[in-house]
Amino acid sequence: MSEKPELVYADLQLGKEFEPFSFSVDAKTIDRFLKAIQEESNPFYQNISVAEEWGYDRPLAPHSLAAIYARSSYLKNYTMPGGGILAKQEFQFFQPVFIGDQLVCRAKVVDRFLKKGRKYVVIEINTCNQNEQQVSLVRVEAIWPK
Amino acid sequence: MNETNLNKPNTLSVGEALPALTKLVTQEMINRWAEVSGDFNPLHVDPDFGKTTFFGTNIAHGPLTLSLVIEMLTRWLGKRWISGGRLYDVRLVSPVPPDTEITVGGEVTKVDIEEGQKRVDCGIWVKNQDDKLIVTGKASCII
Nearest-CA residue of chain A relative to B37? Predict the structure, then answer.
C-alpha cells in the first residue's frame, strides 16, 4: 500500500538533512500515547491543575512523546526496512510541551559506521515548537538492516 | 496507581535511590506502541516472526522502554526535568519480550553546584523480574 521507498544505509550519507517534519500535539494523540505506556491516569498530563501548579496556563504533554516524533522525523518520506535495532538513544529537554503545540522536527545524519559487519547510523533530531523555541534534542544510534 | 511527587527534590545525597517505576510490558502494550509510533516491525508485533529471529521471541520496541525511563524521571524531578533534563549514555543491553515485568530505577551519583545552580547526576537502570539488566544510562538535571 505504501508508496514510500525504504530508507536504506546507502541513502544515509553523513550530513544528510531530512525534510522538516510537523507533529501536532493533539489530545487524541496524547491519549493514545499514554495508553501505550500505561500512563493514562498519570495526573501530570492533560491536567490544567498540575500545569497551573507548575506555573503554566495549558495542560502538559508527556516529554516521552519525543521517542515517537523523533523516529517519525526521518521516516516522513520513507519506510523503515524490517529488522533494524535501536542501539543507543539520548534525550535532552529544554522546554515543556503542551497540548495544542505544533512541533517541527529536523533530522540530520551525524555519523555512520560499520562495526562487526553491522551498519550503524546516528541521527540527531532537533525539535522546536510553534514559537521557535527548542524543546528537545534527540540522538538515535541504530543498527540499520540494509 | 501513580505516586506523583510534585515537589522537586530539595535535599539529595549521593547514593540515594530514585523512586522506582514498575510495569508489566504486555503484547497489548507493544501493539499500542506500534499503532501510535507507526513502527510495525514484525520483530515487535508478530510472535511467530519473533521465534525465527536471533532473540527467539518478539520483543518490545526500545523507545517504549526508554519512554518509561523518561516517565520515572518526570515523576521524580517534575518541572525541572521537562525544561532541563538530559538522559544520555543510554544502552539497550537486553531485549524485552512480552509479559516481562520491568523496573526503572537508579541512584544519585553526584550533586554539584555549577555556575550557581545545583545539578544532580544519576545512574539509571532498567531490570526485569529476574534482576537482569535491560537498559543502562545516565541522567542529569539542574534542580
Answer: A68
Best of B46, B48, B68, B71 to substitute, by most chain A Cβ atoms within 10 angstroms, is B71
Of A72, A93, A97, the CB nearest to B38: A72
First to last CA, chain A: 21
DSSP B38-93: T---HHHH-HHHHHTSTTSS----HHHHHHHHHHHHHHHHTHHHHTTEEEEEEEE-
What does the angle CA A118 – CA A122 – CA A124 come to, to the nearest 5 degrees?
A: 165
Give the predicted TM-score (pTM) of the model. Answer: 0.90
Q: How many domains does chain A have?
A: 1
Residue A105 lies in a domain: yes
B96, pLDDT greater than 80: yes
pLDDT in tens, A32-66: 999 999 988 888 888 888 889 889 999 999 999 99
- What domains can you pick out in chain B, each with its CATH number? 21-142 (3.10.129.10)
For residue range A114-146, list pLDDT tens digits in order.
999 999 999 999 999 999 999 999 999 999 998
pLDDT tens profile A75-84 = 999 988 887 8
Indicate whether A121 belongs to any domain. yes
Interface contact A91, partner B, CB < 8 A = yes
Contacts of A132 (CB under 8 A, 6+ apart): none
